[in-house]
Amino acid sequence: MRQMTTPVVQLRAITREFSGSVAVDAIDLTVERGQFTALLGPSGCGKTTTLRMIAGFLPPSSGTILLDGEEATRLPPERRNIGMVFQSYALFPHLTVEKNVAFGLRMRGVPAAEIRTRVGEVLELVGLAHLARRKPKELSGGQQQRVALARAVAIRPSVLLLDEPLSNLDARLRVQMRQELLRVQRETGLTAILVTHDQEEALELADSMVILDRGRIVQQGPPREVFRAPATRFVAEFLGYENFLDLPGRGPITIRPEHVGVLAPGQKPPPGGEVVEGTVAAVRFRGTDVAVTATVGDRVLHAISTDDTLRAGEPVRLHLPLARAVPLAGDDGDARPATSKQQECPA
Ligand SMILES: Nc1ncnc2c1ncn2[C@@H]1O[C@H](COP(=O)(O)OP(=O)(O)OP(=O)(O)O)[C@@H](O)[C@H]1O
Questions:
Q1: Ligand 1: which residue has its CA nearest to atom 6?
Q2: Which tens digit of pLDDT belongs to each residue from 170-220?
Q3: Ligand 1 in contact with 214 (CB < 6 A)?
Q4: Which of 14, 16, 18 to mutate to test the pocket of ligand 1 (most atoms within 8 A of CB)?
Q5: Secondary structure letter of residue 139 according to DSSP
Q6: 233 lines ligand 1 (CB under 6 A)
Q7: Would the pTM of this model clear 0.90, i.e. be above it?
Q8: Centroid of ligand 1 to alpha carbon of 307 (angstroms)
Q9: What is the mean pLDDT of the chain?
Q10: Domains of the chain
């Protein structure tokens, strides 16, 4: 039987206002031990503000924060057992790698011999043992971020807070470092909360993805679940869905371009779907396939096809398989679509 443990982080109706405007609006969030949670959303949706409140850098305007089951709403950062990694690395430039990593342990009064062992272990963990005597400026961006990660992990925090940690790295390194981050989190069994605006990063790393819009959680769940069934148009657009339409008897739906079929002239459509007729507006060659934009009445639909004989201005028939249509709830500012974790209070 699975053992019940206390969640590492619990936010209850956490709100933060800045001179009258609400940055974080009554968020409820539970993060279980060992879980990798990603807070995802567009710029200004309240991700960093939420993380700073968990870290204790910013007091909430109202609401409660529990860490390891204990009330921590007003606890100063140094009394929270939290490790942080920032986009800017925030290393001490005058200290060597090993001294940077040892810093938090010294502050906590860990004995010198144990510091040496633990610094050695975490540098090994992030693959930097051979660079222990270097200064940060003698390291690449990726290496500096590993030092920052080692420093945060060394204190054995209850929760590791990661604020856009990979954003400063170039695209290729960012993808490599994602795997590195995941490996370190899995090997240490640490609970992690990642703030990102990069949906791919969240999909790849998170056990639980929390999507924020204007300070509220609009959807939460395992990445596969959220990606396959975005609850609202906002979430769908954020995750790259492009086709939004009303189907007779079904209401608003979305469907991914790769699921829209482009029918060849005279081709009988597969069963179970709607066929719409329109005009090709644009065709973008992408190597193995083409991205087709078509106008259908006053709508624009997007499809992916392997037929690269399609040309702008030609008529086209598109097949929308109903099995792939994702029903959407409205984006009404006050409507809170059901999430897998959120509980509605009885009226
Ligand atoms: N110290 C502050 N004073 C006033 N307003 C603030 C402050 N910090 C954040 N805000 C506002 O609160 C809102 C949420 O900001 P926050 O930084 O949490 O968003 P974010 O989702 O992390 O955005 P980004 O991805 O751009 O970092 C924004 O409208 C921002 O302007």
A1: 18
A2: 888 888 889 989 998 999 999 999 999 899 999 999 999 999 999 999 999
A3: no
A4: 18
A5: S
A6: no
A7: no
A8: 45
A9: 89
A10: 1-81+189-240 (3.40.50.300), 82-156 (no CATH), 242-327 (2.40.50.100)
Residue 149 identity: L
Cβ burial, residue 207 (10 Å; 0-12/13-18/19+): middle
Cβ 309 vs Cβ 315: under 8 Å: no
Q: Which residue has the higher pLDDT, 280 or 87?
A: 280
Q: Report the nearest-CA residue for atom 11 of ligand 1.
A: 23
Residues making up the chain, counted from first to last: 347
Contact between residue 86 and residue 51 where contact means Cβ atoms under 8 Å apart: no
What value does the mean pLDDT take over residues 68-89?
91
Mutation to probe ligand 1, out of 27, 47, 167, 195 (largest number of atoms < 8 A from CB): 47
Instruction: Note the pLDDT of residue 211.
Output: 96
Exposed, middle or buried: residue 26 (CB in 10 Å: 0-12, 13-18, 19+)?
A: middle
Ligand 1 midpoint to CA 160 (Å): 21
Q: What is the distance between the alpha carbons of residues 293 and 286, in angstroms, rounded to a whole number?
A: 13
